[in-house]
Design brief:
There is one protein chain. By secondary structure, the chain is an all-alpha fold. The chain has 5 helices and no strands. Helix content is 87%, strand content 0%.
Length: 129
């Protein structure tokens, strides 16, 4: 059973995981493209949109948004599932990192839903008094 403190910690961990994912992606882009990273990003609007959506989801998680948690989970999971369906398998290290982040995103989803459920039941108890 989830309590309010565990729900808030799960949300905080999802925020950290999203930041780690964003930093890793940007780091990999800098490693691959060097000084041309910015021009590469502007020529790839889907990558820029993905980074913007991730930033918006991180901001949403600060407000305990269930939608932000779900979107973050899905935009992280769906590309991997598509690659796996196409027969592209990541290395063991990348898969391990992916599974760790996926765990934190899933727990973040559970945390946001649990948080709102607990807050709603807490308000229901206050109204009954």
């Amino acid at each position: 059973m989830i309590n309010l403190q565990k729900a808030q910690q799960a949300i905080t961990n999802a925020i950290y995981a999203a930041i780690a994912w964003l930093v890793l992606d940007i780091g990999l882009l800098f490693q691959k493209h060097g000084e041309q990273t910015l021009s590469f990003l502007t020529s790839q609007p889907q990558m820029l949109a993905g980074a913007a959506i991730t930033l918006v989801c991180i901001a949403g998680l600060f407000y305990k948004s269930r939608l932000a948690a779900l979107v973050l989970f899905l935009i992280f999971l769906l590309p991997l599932l598509l690659r796996l369906a196409q027969g592209e398998f990541p290395s063991a290290m990348i898969l391990l990192f992916f599974l760790i982040l996926l765990y934190y995103f899933l727990v973040g989803v559970i945390g946001t839903f649990g948080y709102h459920q607990l807050k709603a039941s807490e308000q229901g108890v206050k109204h009954e008094d």
